[in-house]
């Protein structure tokens, strides 16, 4: 009975380790809905408050939700200079769907602005700093443990009396210092 329970526990541990090592079934993606907390991406969108406390990691996705009635297209520009000055002449990409999905596939800063230069100059722009997934973030909630098998309770090792001693007693004091014998003269 105990061997069967032990086998089941070891099998479960093995399958969890295989799943973790292969990366199967574990996803740390976060979907950030830009403007999802308020009126959406538009002239009244508060970029600063929306960004507060957010961390963007490789594998996350950004969804731009447009505010009602606003048809703000979104432009991604390459450099911080283009972003700051709202230079929209050479965009990397333009997002035109009512809900635009952007996959964050690598580390670095990405720069999104309104395609309308006036809206951009009025602050409708979003810098997104993408960091690598932290090696300290567990792929699933911890603590991760198995409950003890029913009826066995927690394992507490039992130690019996010490084994019997054989042979002469072991001295507790160090032996005297070594002195070489006097030289023999022939």
Walk me through what this model shows:
Pfam families: Cu_bind_like. Residues 1-28 form the signal peptide. The structure is a single chain. The chain is α/β, with parallel strands linked by helices. The protein has a domain at 27-131: Cupredoxins -  blue copper proteins (Immunoglobulin-like). 20% of the residues lie in helices and 20% in strands. Strands 2-8-7-4-5 form a five-stranded mixed beta sheet. A three-stranded mixed beta sheet has the order 1-3-6, with no helix packed on it.
Gist of the model:
The chain has 186 residues and is an alpha/beta fold.
What is the alpha-carbon Rg in Å? 33 Å
- Report, as a whole number of angstroms, the end-to-end distance: 79 Å
- Order of strands, main sheet, comes to 2-8-7-4-5
Beta-strand level of the residues, as a percent range? 15-25%
CATH superfamily of the domain at 27-131: Cupredoxins -  blue copper proteins
Pfam families: Cu_bind_like
InterPro entries: Cupredoxin (IPR008972), Phytocyanin-like (IPR039391), Phytocyanin_dom (IPR003245)
GO cellular component, one term: plasma membrane
Region (Disordered): 157-186
